[in-house]
Design goal:
With 95 residues, the chain is mainly alpha-helical. The protein has one domain (3-94): Fido-like domain (Fic-like fold, Orthogonal Bundle), CATH 1.10.3290.10. It has 4 helices and 2 strands; from the N terminus they run ααββαα. The protein has helices at 3-14, 26-37, 65-74, 80-94; strands at 53-54, 57-58. Strands 1-2 form a two-stranded antiparallel sheet. Helix 3 packs antiparallel against helix 4. The chain is globular and about 35 Å long.
């Protein structure tokens, strides 16, 4: 993560900007991603249309993104652990 993104992440929580977002939805994840990375990536906050990898890690293939997003959105959000699991899948599979 770039220094700029790390600083924005600190501000995101320290300045209570996080309270503006409704956690648990894909829409909120896109908005958070755009907030944190808009100065770094032109595609920040957008669903990618191409396959992406970082080092030896390959993200979910672009052709499966719509299906994965729908499945993640259907996941329950009754407990803190369920919400964290859902957010982690959003980040790992989609963004």
């Amino acid at each position: 993560m770039s220094t700029l993104s790390l600083e924005k992440a600190r501000t995101f929580f320290d300045a209570d900007i996080a309270k503006q977002f409704e956690f648990g939805s894909f829409q909120s994840l896109k908005e958070i991603h755009e907030y944190l990375f808009r100065e770094v990536y032109v595609h920040a906050g957008k669903v990618r249309g191409e396959n992406v990898s970082i080092g030896n890690f390959r993200f979910l293939s672009a052709i499966y993104l719509s299906e994965a997003i729908n499945k993640i959105e259907e996941m329950p959000e009754r407990t803190f652990e369920e919400i964290i699991s859902k957010e982690a899948l959003h980040k790992r599979w989609v963004m």
